[in-house]
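Note to self: keep these together.
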Amino acid sequence: MKILIIGATSAIAKATARLYAARHAQLFLIGRNEDLLIELKEDLTIRGAQSVASHVLDLSKQKDHREAIEQARISLEEIDIALLCHGSLPDQEACESDYKKAEREINVNGLSVISLCTEISKVLKAQQSGVLAVITSVAGDRGRQPNFIYGAAKSMVSTYLQGLRGKLLAHKVHVVDIRPGLVDTPMTAKFDKGLLWSTPELVANKIVRSIDNRRHTVYVPGYWRIIMATVCSIPEFIFKRLKI
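Structure:
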Protein backbone atom coordinates (compact mmCIF):
# COMPACT_ATOMS: atom_id res chain seq x y z
CA MET A 1 0.00 0.00 0.00
CA LYS A 2 1.46 3.33 -1.11
CA ILE A 3 0.17 6.40 0.65
CA LEU A 4 0.71 10.14 0.23
CA ILE A 5 -0.18 12.27 3.26
CA ILE A 6 -0.24 16.06 2.94
CA GLY A 7 -0.18 18.22 6.05
CA ALA A 8 1.50 15.19 7.57
CA THR A 9 2.52 16.72 10.90
CA SER A 10 -1.01 17.70 11.93
CA ALA A 11 -2.46 15.70 14.82
CA ILE A 12 -5.03 13.84 12.70
CA ALA A 13 -2.50 13.13 9.95
CA LYS A 14 0.03 11.69 12.39
CA ALA A 15 -2.57 9.43 14.01
CA THR A 16 -3.67 8.20 10.58
CA ALA A 17 -0.10 7.66 9.39
CA ARG A 18 0.57 5.48 12.43
CA LEU A 19 -2.34 3.22 11.52
CA TYR A 20 -0.99 2.79 8.00
CA ALA A 21 2.53 2.22 9.33
CA ALA A 22 1.15 -0.70 11.34
CA ARG A 23 -0.06 -2.11 7.99
CA HIS A 24 3.52 -1.84 6.68
CA ALA A 25 2.60 0.78 4.10
CA GLN A 26 5.00 2.86 2.04
CA LEU A 27 4.49 6.49 3.03
CA PHE A 28 5.34 9.83 1.47
CA LEU A 29 4.85 12.79 3.80
CA ILE A 30 4.46 16.43 2.82
CA GLY A 31 4.57 19.21 5.42
CA ARG A 32 6.15 22.58 6.10
CA ASN A 33 8.24 21.76 9.20
CA GLU A 34 11.33 19.73 8.35
CA ASP A 35 12.21 18.89 11.97
CA LEU A 36 8.73 17.54 12.68
CA LEU A 37 8.80 15.51 9.46
CA ILE A 38 12.10 13.91 10.45
CA GLU A 39 10.70 13.08 13.88
CA LEU A 40 7.56 11.57 12.34
CA LYS A 41 9.55 9.53 9.82
CA GLU A 42 11.50 7.92 12.65
CA ASP A 43 8.31 7.20 14.58
CA LEU A 44 6.57 5.60 11.60
CA THR A 45 9.58 3.46 10.75
CA ILE A 46 9.62 2.08 14.29
CA ARG A 47 5.88 1.39 14.02
CA GLY A 48 6.36 -0.82 10.96
CA ALA A 49 6.21 1.34 7.84
CA GLN A 50 7.88 -0.35 4.88
CA SER A 51 9.44 2.98 3.88
CA VAL A 52 8.97 6.67 4.70
CA ALA A 53 10.03 9.58 2.50
CA SER A 54 9.18 13.25 2.87
CA HIS A 55 9.11 16.62 1.14
CA VAL A 56 9.13 20.06 2.80
CA LEU A 57 6.53 22.42 1.37
CA ASP A 58 4.69 25.60 2.32
CA LEU A 59 1.26 24.40 1.21
CA SER A 60 -0.03 27.93 0.71
CA LYS A 61 2.32 28.31 -2.30
CA GLN A 62 0.39 26.72 -5.15
CA LYS A 63 3.23 27.26 -7.63
CA ASP A 64 5.20 24.53 -5.84
CA HIS A 65 2.42 21.95 -5.70
CA ARG A 66 3.10 20.26 -9.03
CA GLU A 67 6.74 19.56 -8.18
CA ALA A 68 5.82 18.17 -4.74
CA ILE A 69 3.23 15.78 -6.15
CA GLU A 70 5.68 14.68 -8.84
CA GLN A 71 8.23 13.92 -6.12
CA ALA A 72 5.64 11.78 -4.36
CA ARG A 73 4.79 9.95 -7.57
CA ILE A 74 8.43 9.22 -8.30
CA SER A 75 9.09 8.02 -4.75
CA LEU A 76 6.02 5.80 -4.46
CA GLU A 77 5.85 4.87 -8.18
CA GLU A 78 2.09 4.60 -7.75
CA ILE A 79 -0.25 6.35 -5.30
CA ASP A 80 -2.93 4.11 -3.79
CA ILE A 81 -4.22 6.70 -1.32
CA ALA A 82 -3.71 10.46 -1.16
CA LEU A 83 -4.88 12.05 2.09
CA LEU A 84 -5.03 15.83 2.50
CA CYS A 85 -5.00 16.99 6.12
CA HIS A 86 -3.65 20.53 6.14
CA GLY A 87 -5.50 23.62 7.26
CA SER A 88 -5.66 26.49 9.74
CA LEU A 89 -8.27 27.81 12.15
CA PRO A 90 -8.66 31.57 11.55
CA ASP A 91 -9.62 34.36 13.90
CA GLN A 92 -13.09 35.16 12.59
CA GLU A 93 -13.20 38.72 13.93
CA ALA A 94 -9.78 39.52 12.48
CA CYS A 95 -10.80 38.15 9.08
CA GLU A 96 -14.00 40.20 9.09
CA SER A 97 -12.07 43.43 9.64
CA ASP A 98 -9.12 42.70 7.33
CA TYR A 99 -9.75 41.20 3.90
CA LYS A 100 -6.10 40.21 3.46
CA LYS A 101 -6.37 37.96 6.50
CA ALA A 102 -9.59 36.43 5.16
CA GLU A 103 -7.94 35.90 1.77
CA ARG A 104 -4.97 34.13 3.39
CA GLU A 105 -7.22 31.78 5.35
CA ILE A 106 -9.40 30.99 2.33
CA ASN A 107 -6.24 30.28 0.36
CA VAL A 108 -4.92 27.84 2.96
CA ASN A 109 -8.22 26.10 3.72
CA GLY A 110 -9.78 26.23 0.27
CA LEU A 111 -7.75 27.18 -2.79
CA SER A 112 -4.56 25.34 -1.82
CA VAL A 113 -6.59 22.16 -1.29
CA ILE A 114 -8.17 22.47 -4.74
CA SER A 115 -4.75 23.11 -6.27
CA LEU A 116 -3.35 19.94 -4.70
CA CYS A 117 -6.41 17.91 -5.69
CA THR A 118 -5.93 19.08 -9.26
CA GLU A 119 -2.35 17.78 -9.38
CA ILE A 120 -3.16 14.54 -7.55
CA SER A 121 -6.14 13.87 -9.81
CA LYS A 122 -3.87 13.93 -12.85
CA VAL A 123 -1.73 11.19 -11.34
CA LEU A 124 -4.66 9.03 -10.26
CA LYS A 125 -6.39 9.42 -13.64
CA ALA A 126 -3.23 8.31 -15.42
CA GLN A 127 -3.05 5.27 -13.12
CA GLN A 128 -6.76 4.54 -13.54
CA SER A 129 -6.89 3.78 -9.82
CA GLY A 130 -6.57 5.22 -6.33
CA VAL A 131 -8.38 7.06 -3.55
CA LEU A 132 -8.33 10.79 -2.90
CA ALA A 133 -9.42 11.57 0.67
CA VAL A 134 -9.72 15.14 1.95
CA ILE A 135 -10.39 16.39 5.47
CA THR A 136 -12.92 19.22 5.26
CA SER A 137 -15.21 20.11 8.20
CA VAL A 138 -18.78 20.14 9.43
CA ALA A 139 -18.29 23.92 9.43
CA GLY A 140 -18.79 23.85 5.67
CA ASP A 141 -22.39 22.63 5.96
CA ARG A 142 -23.79 26.04 6.88
CA GLY A 143 -22.41 29.55 7.37
CA ARG A 144 -22.51 30.08 11.13
CA GLN A 145 -21.65 33.42 12.73
CA PRO A 146 -18.62 32.28 14.77
CA ASN A 147 -16.66 30.77 11.85
CA PHE A 148 -18.12 31.56 8.44
CA ILE A 149 -14.75 32.44 6.85
CA TYR A 150 -13.42 28.99 7.72
CA GLY A 151 -16.78 27.42 6.84
CA ALA A 152 -16.88 29.13 3.45
CA ALA A 153 -13.48 27.69 2.52
CA LYS A 154 -14.45 24.20 3.65
CA SER A 155 -17.79 24.43 1.85
CA MET A 156 -15.98 25.33 -1.35
CA VAL A 157 -13.79 22.24 -1.05
CA SER A 158 -16.74 19.93 -0.29
CA THR A 159 -18.65 21.23 -3.33
CA TYR A 160 -15.53 20.76 -5.45
CA LEU A 161 -15.12 17.19 -4.21
CA GLN A 162 -18.72 16.34 -5.10
CA GLY A 163 -18.13 17.30 -8.70
CA LEU A 164 -14.67 15.74 -8.80
CA ARG A 165 -16.06 12.44 -7.52
CA GLY A 166 -18.31 12.20 -10.55
CA LYS A 167 -15.58 13.25 -12.95
CA LEU A 168 -13.15 10.63 -11.66
CA LEU A 169 -15.66 7.77 -11.49
CA ALA A 170 -14.95 6.64 -15.05
CA HIS A 171 -11.24 6.58 -14.21
CA LYS A 172 -11.75 4.18 -11.27
CA VAL A 173 -10.69 6.86 -8.77
CA HIS A 174 -12.68 7.24 -5.55
CA VAL A 175 -13.11 10.51 -3.63
CA VAL A 176 -13.82 10.70 0.11
CA ASP A 177 -14.94 13.90 1.89
CA ILE A 178 -14.14 13.56 5.61
CA ARG A 179 -15.99 16.06 7.81
CA PRO A 180 -14.80 16.05 11.42
CA GLY A 181 -16.62 17.93 14.13
CA LEU A 182 -14.78 19.22 17.19
CA VAL A 183 -11.37 17.58 17.57
CA ASP A 184 -8.92 18.10 20.43
CA THR A 185 -5.71 19.11 18.63
CA PRO A 186 -3.06 21.80 19.07
CA MET A 187 -5.07 23.93 16.60
CA THR A 188 -8.02 23.97 19.03
CA ALA A 189 -5.99 24.21 22.25
CA LYS A 190 -7.56 27.52 23.29
CA PHE A 191 -11.10 26.11 23.35
CA ASP A 192 -12.83 24.58 26.35
CA LYS A 193 -13.53 20.90 25.67
CA GLY A 194 -16.85 19.14 26.25
CA LEU A 195 -18.78 15.97 25.43
CA LEU A 196 -18.85 16.56 21.67
CA TRP A 197 -15.08 16.68 21.33
CA SER A 198 -13.16 13.79 19.76
CA THR A 199 -9.52 12.69 19.76
CA PRO A 200 -7.28 12.60 16.67
CA GLU A 201 -7.02 8.83 17.15
CA LEU A 202 -10.78 8.36 16.92
CA VAL A 203 -10.89 10.47 13.76
CA ALA A 204 -7.95 8.56 12.27
CA ASN A 205 -9.66 5.22 12.81
CA LYS A 206 -12.78 6.52 11.05
CA ILE A 207 -10.69 7.87 8.17
CA VAL A 208 -8.99 4.52 7.56
CA ARG A 209 -12.28 2.58 7.77
CA SER A 210 -13.99 5.05 5.42
CA ILE A 211 -11.24 4.73 2.84
CA ASP A 212 -11.28 0.94 3.16
CA ASN A 213 -15.05 0.90 2.60
CA ARG A 214 -15.05 3.48 -0.22
CA ARG A 215 -17.39 5.86 1.59
CA HIS A 216 -18.36 9.19 0.04
CA THR A 217 -19.13 11.85 2.67
CA VAL A 218 -18.16 10.89 6.21
CA TYR A 219 -19.05 12.72 9.41
CA VAL A 220 -16.67 12.07 12.31
CA PRO A 221 -17.99 10.98 14.74
CA GLY A 222 -21.22 9.90 13.04
CA TYR A 223 -23.50 11.91 15.34
CA TRP A 224 -22.32 15.07 13.59
CA ARG A 225 -24.42 14.08 10.60
CA ILE A 226 -27.53 14.40 12.79
CA ILE A 227 -26.30 17.60 14.43
CA MET A 228 -25.57 19.29 11.13
CA ALA A 229 -28.79 18.07 9.52
CA THR A 230 -30.60 19.76 12.40
CA VAL A 231 -28.56 22.96 12.01
CA CYS A 232 -29.25 23.02 8.27
CA SER A 233 -32.98 22.59 8.84
CA ILE A 234 -33.34 25.77 10.91
CA PRO A 235 -35.21 28.45 8.91
CA GLU A 236 -33.02 31.36 7.92
CA PHE A 237 -35.15 33.98 9.70
CA ILE A 238 -34.33 32.15 12.95
CA PHE A 239 -30.84 30.99 12.05
CA LYS A 240 -29.53 34.49 11.36
CA ARG A 241 -30.20 35.37 14.99
CA LEU A 242 -28.28 32.39 16.42
CA LYS A 243 -24.66 32.67 17.53
CA ILE A 244 -23.96 28.93 17.34
